[in-house]
Amino acid sequence: MYFLTGWPRRLLCPLRSEEEPFHIQPSSQRLYFAVLSETQLSIWFSRPSVLIVSYIESAKAAAQFGSYQKAEWKPDDSMIAVATAKGYILLFDVLGGGEDKSLYEPVYPKGSPRVKVTPGYKEEQCAPALSLEMKKPVDLEAPITSLRSLQEDLLVCTTDGYLHVLHWDGLGSNGRKSICLTTIPFSLDLQSARGGPSLDLEEVHIRCMEYCVTLDGFAVVLSDGRLGFITPLSNTITADQLQGVWAADVNDGTCVAVNNKYRLMAFGCAGGSVLVYMIDTTTGSMQLSHKLELTPKHYPDIYNKTGPVKLICWSPDYSVVMVTWECGGLSLWSVFGAHLICTLGEDFAYRSDGTKKDPVKISSMTWGAEGYHLWKQHNQEQVLLHGEDRLYLTCGDPSQVQSTSDTQPHTHMHPHDGSPLHHPPDPDSSLSQGLSTLLGHKHWHVVQIHSTYLESNWPIRFAAIDTAGQCMAVAGRRGFAHYSLFTRKWKLFGNITQEQNMTVTGGLAWWKDFVVVACYNFIDQQEQLRLYQRSSNLDNTYASVTKLHSDTLLLNVFRDLVILFRADCSICLYSIERRNDSPYPTASVELLQEVSMSRYIPHPALVVSVTLTSVRTETGITLKAPQQAGMAESIMLNLAGQLIMLQRDRSGPQVREKETPANNKKLLPFCPPVVLAQCVENVWTTCRSNRKKRHLLEALWLSCGEAGMKVWLPLFPRDHRKPHSFLSRRIMLPFHINIYPLAVLFEDALVLGATNETVLYDGMQGSSEPLEALFPYCTVERTSQIYLHHILRQLLVRNLGEQALMLAQSCASLPYFPHVMELMVHVVLEEEATSREPIPDPLLPTVAKFITEFPLFLQTIVHCARKTEYALWNYLFAAVGNPKDLFEECLMAQDLDTAASYLIILQNMEAPAVSRQHATLLFNTALEQGKWDLCRHMIRFLKAIGSGEMESPPPTPTTQEPSSTGGFEFFRNRSISLSQSADAIATGKFNLQKTFSMPSGPCVKGREAECAENMYIDMMLWRHARHLLEQVRLRDLGCFSAQLGFELIGWLCRERNRVARVEDFVSALKKLHKDFLWPFPVIPGGSISSPLKNGRCRTVLSTRLLKSQSADSLLNSDMDTAPPQAASANHTWLDGLGQRPKDMDTASSAHSSQHSPQTHDAFLSLLTNKVEEYSVGSATDLTETSSVVDGDWMMVDENSSSLSLSQAELEHISMELANKGPHKSQVQLRYLLHVFMEAGCLEWCVVIGLILRDANVIKQVLGFLDSPEVPQDTVQSVRNGLLAVDTWVSTDCLGYKPFLNLIQPQLQDLMDSAAEQVQPEAFQPSSQSSKLGGSEGLGGTAVPRPEDSRGVTAPLGLALPSLEPAGNFPRPPSEDCPPEQTEEQGDEEGAYDCTLS
């Protein structure tokens, strides 16, 4: 296939001339090209592009003949004919300059083997010195419209309606014949009666004509715009031996070009389209094959403004056609109409500032040698494009063996290959690596062709790549060379004579590590098939040579077979076998079979490709017993776009394997050919087999131009059932893709292609635009496309759901399988829901039913819906089911993120009450599962529903991709109050100020709705907290409070005498040990004296603090601050507490301070993002002041404070460290202790004090029990609980005994006080909390106290430092808690970004 690359090049004529050249005509081999201007004929050499000779007409002759108009070469390049304006044909002899005369010669460095002795050196390497001599002019007495060379004749059409046949030597008696157009009979087909001229051809002449060798006739455009085809009925062209046919209903033809390989005629029309005709072989009539035209979809501005078609030009290999119009521009199509590039749109037509460029107007165009200066490819699964001097490969990094994932199964075909390339790779890695290199980037691996080979053998005619994509071979005019990506080296013939004595005729291919070459040997003057080993030197001594009897046109390799197509229209099969009996590896070649095709092939040049395949149609293929994989079952022959299949004939007497001697390889004959498809450009098939993906691997893939692609898919009976008699064995399915296919990856269900990309250049904005500014810089980029959804859909349309299911299940492991499913739903939905007519048999219900077979069903539907406009939702959900039911299915399947996406759909399709109900369900489930991100989104969602209830019609959703969090992005567009705690976490920045924004709408109503909504959410949060506390899940409770900014202390105050009681101290203690991975204490070997304890604490604490990255605030302070300072700090804190009873009361109403935020002194330590590990005390340096939904708030600067620890506190901390619980659990427990202490939940304080083995806490709490405000049943509960613990310790857990002994005096007091019961007073929250605060403050050792907070204000709802260390700082696992446990624990609380009021 051809692609533009780089910028166009400009050739400057060395001769000064006023005249503009306007016509270019290449010689038959394209070694030279002739350029015409009005009175000048120049001949240029093609490589290097240099002017050889120029003939300038004298003024007198110019006046006689008129200006030059057209030129034509004689087939052997010895003459040129030029047509002039006044009806003359000027014939020029092109004379060589003798033996030694050449204008330009290559100069080689001294000692180079490239000397003048190499054969063909003069003709090929040097630009010869030519001269032009005019012979006698021929006067045709009428202006000339067309000039064409035909073997020894020159055909000239003139405006007087005559067709002149001139002999090139033109001066003899029979040198000239004239045929009048009116004498040629025309009809619509050749079967019509031949009764003289059937049309009125008076005053009509031939405007344009081309001869087609393979159709043996002339395609003509007449002056009135009609199109015709004239066939000579005998070998000579005479008036009575010509017969013409018309193309019906066309009368605006402008020009014509014929395609000899595909037997097509392309006619340009005045309307701007190109009509491509073929000749019906049975009737001889002209049949329209396809049209080439710009579509309004891709070229809306220009598609109908191009003007008439001016020129059409087929490439030298006839695979693409270039078209230009009167208004300018170039467009490239493949032979059967796939559009490749057009310069009338995009960067070609517009400058970077958006202004329109004038399209380049083209007066003449032609293709260079081998079609370069425009571009090709090979192999089934690799894409290899070769440019004039380089190769482009799709492989990724060549150091990976996988260039595509398909290379992996090939490794089994190289059992003897010792090269490092073919060691079987790890099968798991192959897929991932392969796909990433195929899909991941758009760049090519570019290999520069060796300059030494290129300079003497340009142009490159063939290129081949091996199956692994690691080795390439190229062949030019003589010899060949090969390259390995592994060594990054080229191998050239060591002996130049050997290289120059062969030319590759039929092509190149790789077989294992051999290059297979079909070539012509000049010395022996015969065709040969040669195999060269890759690792040996490139030399004929290492080659195995087989003589061939006829010229080879095409060559291909299948497994261990070589298939050749020869010039006598026969096909030969050879087997190759590796032989290791000689010192170097060789291969032996043996002829197996010859098949003559001359009955079916009218002309050998019509065969585009020939391949062996393992495809077959006969019955008896079941999934249970696959056919013998990779047997050569059939030959696929592309004959001028018709795909012909020859299968092995198994109908004759079958010879059983055993009876045949091993060496006698008698192959079955082939059946008569069958036509499989028309308009085929490329064929792909593979010889590999894979039991899991038989549909894809045993299929045949075709590329058919504008008709897209087709796949001939095998159909298998399910399991081992008897196949249906009516079910055919294979089915041809068409599908469209957006790229031009260059290779098919069978297992990966991918098509690889390439596309032209353009880069604008604005270097010079001068008055005259340079060529670079007219054309953008062109690059070729890799593309790939998934096709699986097309095939599944086609199977479903044909009621082959079972086959579709088997195919889909075999591909379900592909990484883009979910995308395939989405695409299928999306395409069908768009088509059916937007159709204007009712669809009699809609496909969407079938597709929906099909997708329910896969676990991805729920995601697929919701993702598809979210990417589709709201108007189509009703149609979609009518087919797939009610979104409410789908939402409930998601909940049952525990797929909460998908359920969240369904919620957005429900919100738009249902009443707010329904979506609130479902949101509540999801919110509760998310709370239960600890999906905090989702919970935060749900809080915002519920608030949004509340504020949005006044809007009657549901708004159209913004269709954004669902994000990993379940996708609630569309709330960005709403003006609603968001939960600040959730936002604080989302932003992750702490020095913030927030303002409160009300929802739009009537102010009062909005506030009422918001209050109700907040209340509703709070009720759910309280219910969840109650549930956690009832189940003694303190750790989950802390996490819940921190993640969602839940006001834990205020809530506990209200629940102090209800759910926040401890029923069973022992089971609570055990549960805490389990939850926090806290080891049960063991009896220590000896007791540690106090001074040592302090010393140890000093070092431990300081290293701890140094480890903590952001402990600036701690490190700034002096560790041994004098106690008086601490005392004063405690004193101010107490005063602060004294002012709080009123707030503690009001905190029970969540919104008391909603509109009048109050500020209090508070101190937050270490509130930074980069905290790695907290000091033990940091979690407790917190005070609660106001409610979650408050207004403006600020964070404390992290360095605003320093910390001082008293001796007693250090003692306490050293005791903690000796407890050996995980550090993080310690921080969490301390924090919870602080919370319960603040809320006055004394029973919980006792339990946590026990697990922390902190005597001061126990003493403090037992001290509070004397207070008259503490209810009597609390005192009773603590007493009973401690007794139960004492009993349990004595029997089951002696490790606690020393600690209980330590607090024995307090316990004794408690027991004693129980004797003299006092009637408790009514509980007074205000005095209680002040008392609590006071005693706690005076205790002084329960928690490290903050200093004065320096007047920093902080209403309630602040974010607490996350309980999870932010970085991956390695925490030393405690000795009592094995490392596995710590690991596990780390995994469980993955998202411990705690916030706390």
UniProtKB/TrEMBL annotation:
Domain of life per record: Eukaryota
GO process annotations (BP): intracellular protein transport; retrograde transport, endosome to Golgi
InterPro entries found in the cross-reference section: Ric1 (IPR040096), RIC1_C (IPR009771), WD40/YVTN_repeat-like_dom_sf (IPR015943), WD40_repeat_dom_sf (IPR036322)
GO cellular component: cytosol; Golgi membrane; Ric1-Rgp1 guanyl-nucleotide exchange factor complex
Residue ranges with Acidic residues bias: 1377-1391
Biased segments, Basic and acidic residues type: 414-426
Gene3D superfamilies in the cross-refs: YVTN repeat-like/Quinoprotein amine dehydrogenase
Signal peptide residue numbers: none
Low complexity composition bias: residue spans: 1146-1158
UniProt region (Disordered), positions on chain: 398-432, 1134-1158, 1317-1397
Localization terms from the record: Membrane
Keyword field contains Plastid: no
UniProt keyword Membrane, yes or no: yes
PANTHER family, sorted: GUANINE NUCLEOTIDE EXCHANGE FACTOR SUBUNIT RIC1, RAB6A-GEF COMPLEX PARTNER PROTEIN 1
Organism: Cyclopterus lumpus
Keywords noted in UniProt: Membrane
Principal subcellular localization: membrane
Occurrences of domain RIC1 C-terminal alpha solenoid region (ranges): 789-947
Designated name of the protein: Protein RIC1 homolog
Sequence ranges of Polar residues compositional bias: 398-410
One Pfam family hit: Beta-prop_RIC1_2nd
